[in-house]
Amino acid sequence: MDRFNPIHPAEAWAQAGAVESAPAGPIGVIFSFVPFIVIFVLFYFLLLRPQQQKNKQRKEMIDNLKKGDRVMTSGGLIGTVTNLSGDFLALQVAEGVRVKVKRNYIEEVQAPTLPEETP
Q1: Which among 58, 60, 97, 104 is positioned nearest to 80, based on CA atoms?
Q2: With contact defined as beta carbons under 8 Å apart, do 99 and 64 qualify?
Q3: Residues near 65 by beta carbon (within 8 Å), at least 6 away in sequence
Q4: How many CB atoms lie within 10 A of CB 84?
Q5: What does the alpha-carbon distance between residue 72 and residue 91 come to, in Å, rounded to a whole number?
Q6: Does the pLDDT at position 15 exceed 60?
Q7: 96 vs 80, 89, 93, CA distance in Å?
Q8: Are 69 and 62 in contact (CB under 8 A)?
Q9: Torsion angles phi and psi, residue 68, rounded to 5
């Protein structure tokens, strides 16, 4: 009398595949790291390097600030640099209104505005 074998076909395929996928020696180990190396190289050139260049440009911009530059802070405050001292600078935001700001909070140097024409 035939007895029913309770093994599922998917289990049979999994067991057969385990025997065939044995490592192929040192070459197989080297090739298993290739995808990780490729991903790291792509990650470096697409994310890390552009961010480093952007940080370098921002540092140069902050180091080259001078009196009379029109700047915008990270909080959106726009003013003209009136005094530079160490890590801080003074911004004139309105006539007679000066604000002390840390250099790191300067987001951009804006083009000087033309004087408003009166008709």
Answers
A1: 97
A2: no
A3: 71, 81, 84, 89, 103, 106, 109
A4: 14
A5: 10
A6: no
A7: 12, 16, 8
A8: no
A9: 95, -10
User: How far is C-alpha 50 from the chain's CA centre?
Assistant: 7
Q: Which amino acid is at 16?
A: A
Element (H, E) at 109: strand 106-110
Q: What is the pLDDT of residues 46-76, one digit of tens each?
A: 999 999 999 999 999 999 999 999 999 999 9
Question: What one-letter code names the amino acid at 4?
Answer: F
Residue 5 is classified by DSSP as: P
Evaluate if residue 80 carries a pLDDT over 70: yes
- The CATH code that applies to domain 66-110 is 2.30.30
Q: Domain extents for the chain? A: 9-60, 66-110
Q: How far apart are the first and last CA of the chain?
A: 111
Position with higher pLDDT, 17 vs 90 = 90
Above 90 in pLDDT, residue 105?
Answer: yes
Question: Nearest to residue 63, comparing CAs of 103, 91, 111, 102?
Answer: 103
